[in-house]
Amino acid sequence: MNKELPISRLHRLRNVFFGFDTIHVPEDVDVVICNTLWHIVIDPFTGFQTSAFYSRKNEYLEPFCQTLLEWEQHVLGIKYLQHDDAGENKAFIKKANSPK
Question: Which terminal residue of the chain, N or C, has fewer Cβ atoms less than 10 Å from its own Cβ?
């Protein structure tokens, strides 16, 4: 279920969507991938997408907050972040709304 939650410190113009996907290596391939969590951010207004790979879900919190703050400084303000209600997303909302 998707929710739109306002971000008090990071707001202005539009919706941005973000989420995780996991990379699975086929069993017949002899490869080890350390960073199997793919975090993707999509701005449907401009079509801009960015992504990064992590080994644990909590590793994305600080870099993602920094990215959003940089977007806000470049007049790419965000009114809503749309996401599912997974625990890592709740942790992000708490961190994004905390005073810093």
Answer: N
Residue 54 has pLDDT above 90, yes or no: yes
Show the domain range for 56: 3-97
- What the block records as the tokens of 77 is 């303000």
- Is 0.90 surpassed by the pTM of this model? no
4-to-24, 28, 37, 46, 60 alpha-carbon distances in Å: 29, 41, 23, 19, 20
First and final CA of the chain: distance in angstroms? 30
How far apart (Å, rounded) are the C-alpha atoms in residues 99 and 47?
Answer: 30
The torsion of the CA quartet 11, 17, 22, 23, rounded to 10 degrees, works out to -110
